[in-house]
Amino acid sequence: MAEFDSGMRKSRDVESSDVKVPETAHQISQDSWLQIAFILTTGINSAYVLGYSGTVMVPLGWVGGSVGLVFAAALSLYANVLLAKIHELGGKRHIRYRDLAGHIYGKNAYALTWALQYINLFMINTGYIILAGQALKAMYVLFRDDHVMKLPYFIVIAGFVCALFAFGVPHLSALKIWLGFSNFFSIIYIVIAFILALNDGKKALPRDYSIPGSTATKIFSCIGGFANLFFSFNTGMLPEIQATVKQPVVGNMVKALVFQFTIGLVPMYAITLMGYWAYGNETSAYLLNNVSGPVWVKAVANISAFLQSVIALHIFASPMYEYLDTKFGPTKGGAFSPSRISFRVLVRGGYLTINTLVSALLPFLGDFMSLTGAFSTFPLTFILANHMYLMAKKHKLSIPQKSWHWLNITFFSVMSVAAGVSAVRLILADSKTYNIFADL
Where are the alpha helices (DSSP H) in 173-248? Predict the structure, then answer.
């Protein structure tokens, strides 16, 4: 166990089941549970929260959305705690999701889990670049609504700034003070959006809270809304985050998760419900486009959303960075040696260039949230987590406990398929409505 508790490591292989697991070039076992809690809270209260009124509440309505927020949070906390409890399995710390799957199932599951996680994180990062671009465009429109600068241009600017940040922050543990800035920025745009939406709601005519669309559209939108719900609570990279926490790793991770799903949920719930109350089914996928108020106040909110998105993206890109640094990066020199900085510029810059291109091509944020929830969040956070826990603890679980886990596996498997169909349908519909490089 102690061999995993050093700081920076050279790349070499350690046997885990029949899968060779590389050690990491990044820092692990150095962070307090509170720092991990801030990482999780940064994710859950990222600029994505400005879209939940439109992408969760509008397709689900008051009853479905409100009940769904509580239901999805409870199931997400449960699934994440299960995963946290098997971080140390077989006498080893499994610092990556795919390592844990490989240890339990073998090589095929190792590769499949890595593919699912890569899709999940790539889609999340795509969403962050879209959000950052939307925030920049919204701020531009406040001062010059001349349509000269279009959304794809702002997405490119956002991708470039994200790349600059990635060059300067070598690994997840190095975020430290940036997590404080991230949560500060979150408070700014959430408080501003909440107050402006409250003022608009007080002055507005009666709102329409009915779920829009035909019967078929309502069904598919509802399924997509549920996928967005579960997407909003989960990272898809819990073992990688847990790898950075100090011993005792299980106890500290559970404390961080409890913080995330109690105190951390308050801002998210507040802005999601307030936005829907104020604008009904006219709520957009970026709440700051709905609110009215002083130009400078909205400008502050938008720039805060932009800066927070840059920091939050780094969290969800860190598993890919860790893989590239460990597999291909220089083994000599400090984190800021010329060779390592050059490597980050080349490799991380290339990765974010691809992300930025996809973001500019298809900037349909709500659709990507649904697709990500369907094809990766459900399998990684719920299906795999429950089944891996079953495999790890099968001799210690009673028949009712096993049945409960199988019920979870079955339910989320069905939800994953249904949400996938819904998301693809939504993307195809939006692709017909908008051209590529759309200026939304």
Answer: 177-203, 215-233, 238-242
CB 8 within 8 A of CB 27: yes
CA distance 327 to 318: 14
pLDDT band at 433; cut points 50, 70, 90: low
Q: Tokens at residue 269, please?
A: 């719930």
pLDDT band of 388, cuts 50, 70, 90: very high
Strand 92-93 and strand 88-89: the pairing is: antiparallel
CB 135 within 8 A of CB 309: yes
Query: Which one, of 23, 82, 36, lies nearest residue 241 by Cα?
Result: 36
Query: CA 159, CA 239: separation in Å to the nearest integer?
Result: 27
Residue 127 pLDDT: 86
CA–CA dist 290, 275 (Å, integer) = 9
Amino acid letter at 314? H
Give which of 249, 228, 396, 239 is closest to 322, Cα–Cα: 239
> In the block, which residue shows the tokens 């670049």?
129
Kindly state the tokens that stand for 249: 């790793």
Tell whether the model's pLDDT for residue 26 goes beyond 70.
Answer: no
DSSP 8-state assignment for residue 89: E
pTM of the shown model: 0.85
* First CA to last CA distance, the chain: 51
Beta pairing partners, 16: 19
pLDDT at residue number 438 = 61
**Residue 311 C-beta-side C-alpha neighbours within 13 Å:** 30
Residue 93 is given by DSSP the state: E
Banded model confidence at residue 147, pLDDT cuts 50, 70, 90: confident
